[in-house]
Amino acid sequence: MGIRLIKISAVYFLLGAGLGYYMAVVHDYSLTPVHAHINLLGWTALTLAGIIYHLFPAAAASKLGKWHFWLHNIGLPIMMGGLALFTITENPFFAVFISIGATVVLIAILLFVINVFTNVKE
Fold this sequence. Notes:
transmembrane helix; transmembrane; Cyt_c_oxase-like_su1_sf; 5 helices; membrane; Cbb3-type cytochrome c oxidase subunit I; single chain
């Protein structure tokens, strides 16, 4: 699980950096919140979770670890897609996707925290 999280975090890193590069080239920084969230919740958070899971195999092997992985990686694209569409179109309909995705990611993070307190031991 740890290595899988690190690998998918590298994809988020590429997406976040690519979006940052695009914004710099076109001089349009309206998608800065998307860029920041992809880098923080995708690249940084998942890299750190991957390292923790790699160092603590019991946490990685748990059902909590699997649920964390899947919910985080389902919720984040939904949230980022909604945020991008909301920012570009200013259509409040897309805020629903932000809320749904953010809720799923928050549940994933809660499961990660429970997993750390339950399965990460000296």
